[in-house]
Design brief:
single chain; alpha+beta; four-stranded antiparallel sheet; two-stranded antiparallel ribbon
Length: about 200
C-alpha cells in the first residue's frame, strides 16, 4: 500500500507519497515544451505505457501534477501580494489570460484540462489567484502569459515569478531560460522520470 503523508501549505492540502512503491528514478528530463507528445511516445515505447511516470521531488518524497499545480498557484498568490500594483494593472487590462493558444482559456480553473501541445499552468494559476483574492477580470484584452509577450507575459511567466519556497528546489538547478529560484526552476529542476522496478 502506498504511504501517503498529508501536507498543508497555507490552506492548500495535498498528499505527498514516498518512493517505496517499486518506482525507480531514471533522470531529471527537463523541458518537454512542444516536443511533449514525441517525448511521451518515446517513454511509452521504451518503458511501456503504464510503466513510467513523471513526478516532482518535494521534500523527502514525490508529488504528482495536481499538487505541483497547487504549488505553482501558491507562488502566484504570494506574487500577487508582493506585486499588487502589477496584478491590479492585469486585472484592469485583461478579459482573460492564456499561455500558448487562446483555446487555453477552456481550462478555466481546472489544471487537469490540458491540450496536447504543451502543458500550461500559469494561466490557470492566475485565474485561481483571482478567485482566491475575490477579483474579477475587468478589462477587454486577452492577455498572453508567456515569456516574450508584452507587457504582462514577460513579468508573469513562471520563469520570472519567484517560487514561494526556494529551499525545495533540487540542486544543482537545471539550466534554462528561467531565473534561478523561479516557479519554472522548481517545475523543471524537480521533475523526475520514474519507471517501475
Amino acid at each position: 500500500m502506498r504511504r501517503l503523508l498529508k501536507i498543508s501549505i497555507k490552506g492548500i492540502k495535498f498528499f505527498r507519497f514516498g518512493n517505496k512503491m517499486g518506482w525507480k528514478n531514471i533522470e531529471r528530463p527537463g523541458v518537454f515544451g512542444d516536443k511533449k507528445a514525441e517525448i511521451i511516445a518515446g517513454y511509452d515505447s521504451e518503458y511501456g505505457k503504464s510503466n513510467w511516470r513523471i513526478v516532482h521531488k518535494h521534500a523527502e518524497g514525490f508529488i504528482q501534477f495536481p499538487e505541483v499545480c497547487k504549488l505553482f498557484e501558491e507562488s502566484y498568490l504570494q506574487d500577487s501580494i508582493r506585486r499588487e500594483t502589477l496584478w491590479a494593472q492585469l486585472r484592469d487590462t485583461a478579459l482573460d489570460v492564456y499561455d500558448i493558444d487562446e483555446s487555453d482559456r477552456e481550462s478555466g480553473l481546472d489544471y487537469s484540462i490540458q491540450n496536447n501541445v504543451a502543458t500550461h499552468i500559469q494561466d490557470i494559476a492566475i485565474r485561481n489567484v483571482f478567485v482566491r483574492r475575490g477579483w474579477e477580470f475587468e478589462g477587454s484584452e486577452l492577455v498572453q502569459i508567456r515569456s516574450k509577450a508584452e507587457p504582462f507575459g514577460k513579468v508573469l511567466t513562471p520563469g520570472r515569478v519567484p517560487f514561494h519556497d526556494p529551499q525545495l528546489i533540487v540542486v544543482p538547478h537545471l539550466a534554462g531560460w528561467w531565473d534561478i529560484n523561479s516557479v519554472e526552476d522548481f517545475y523543471q529542476s524537480n521533475k523526475v522520470l520514474q519507471v517501475r522496478e
